[in-house]
From TrEMBL:
CDD domains: ABC_Metallic_Cations. Residues 260-270 have a biased composition (Basic residues). SUPFAM superfamilies: P-loop containing nucleoside triphosphate hydrolases. Keywords: ATP-binding, Ion transport, Nucleotide-binding, Transport, Zinc, Zinc transport. Residues 248-270 are annotated as: Disordered. Belongs to the ABC transporter superfamily. One of its GO terms (molecular function) is ATP binding. This is ABC transporter. InterPro entries: AAA+_ATPase (IPR003593), ABC_transporter-like_ATP-bd (IPR003439), ABC_transporter-like_CS (IPR017871), AztA-like (IPR047748), Metal_Ion_Import_ABC (IPR050153), P-loop_NTPase (IPR027417). It comes from Limoniibacter endophyticus.
Length: 270
């Protein structure tokens, strides 16, 4: 495998934000092809912003985020960003996963319908095909969204807090689906708040506190020291600071974690 093949996503001094305020500062490093990474950090630490930067809905303020060979991305936003009152059934939501490939106005083939029904079965929602989205429980909606990811069949999968408000059984099922995507060689990044879950199921972790705190094998990334540093940075935020003032305040934290080319060595394992 060439090094270009190993690098699925590359960040080079990437800064992302809104209006004139940066939310993710000067991130450098590579996401290895086929890796399974948890993105961890406190509220407002830039996790969702980073996913939006990878998808491309948010353009860099500076630096770059490059997806190798413009790989397709399946992106699941936080449930709070979804409009549940949208008048659609489960089958319509899952069908949307085929739009990028088929186009909005093309008719779907019998094969496409089989793909959609198979995905609905795979997430355990058989019998719910015709149900309106606004009648689903939170866990059922999350299953339907996972079915949409399945039909998208993308090599890169980004999930923003997919385990929020799901019960133990649904959680186990969603984890199994993520693991099957990982075994199939897809590159998967998931925003997760529960650190025990991360330690149990995610080989690699990226810990954010607006700037990168640590990134590598989960056991190395989530040391008490790194978690303490992340919380200290978190407390030091000034929401009203002009962009990059926060960066200079936090420069020491960036200097000693050695991300970028150094962190890349972590990615041989997993
Ligand atoms: N659309 C927006 N416009 C302006 N500022 C935003 C916008 N979205 C996020 N922010 C700000 O960017 C910063 C990072 O937010 P982000 O949503 O990436 O954090 P997060 O780590 O995903 O948080 P959480 O765990 O609470 O979901 C926060 O200060 C937030 O207020």
């Amino acid at each position: 495998m060439t090094s270009a093949e190993q690098h699925c996503i590359r960040f080079d001094n990437l800064t992302l934000g809104y209006q004139s305020r940066a939310a993710v500062h000067h991130l450098s490093g590579v996401v290895r092809e086929g890796s399974l990474t948890a993105i961890v950090g406190g509220n407002g630490s830039g996790k969702s912003t980073l996913l939006k930067g990878i998808v491309g809905v948010l353009k860099p303020m500076s630096g770059t985020c490059i997806r190798h060979a413009r790989r397709d991305v399946a992106y699941l936003p936080q449930q709070s960003e979804l409009d549940r009152s949208f008048p659609a059934r489960v089958v319509d939501l899952v069908m949307m996963g085929l739009w990028p490939k088929r186009g909005l106005l093309r008719r779907f083939s019998g094969e496409d319908h089989d793909t959609i029904l198979r995905a609905i079965r795979e997430v355990g929602l058989e019998g719910f095909e015709e149900r309106d989205l606004d009648t689903l429980s939170g866990g059922q909606l999350q299953r339907a969204l996972f079915a949409r990811v399945i039909v998208q069949d993308a090599p890169i999968i980004l999930l923003d807090e997919p385990f929020n408000a799901v019960d133990a059984r649904t959680l186990q099922h969603l984890i199994e689906l993520i693991q099957s995507w990982h075994r199939g060689g897809r590159t998967v990044m998931v925003v997760v708040h529960d650190l025990e879950l991360v330690r149990r199921h995610f080989p690699e972790t990226l810990l954010l506190a607006r700037s990168l705190v640590s990134w590598g094998k989960t056991a190395d990334a989530l040391t008490p020291d790194n978690l303490f540093r992340a919380s200290t940075l978190h407390e030091a935020w000034d929401e009203d600071a002009p962009w990059c003032e926060a960066e200079s305040k936090h420069a020491h934290a960036r200097d000693d974690h050695g991300h970028g080319s150094a962190h890349h060595h972590h990615h041989d394992a997993a």
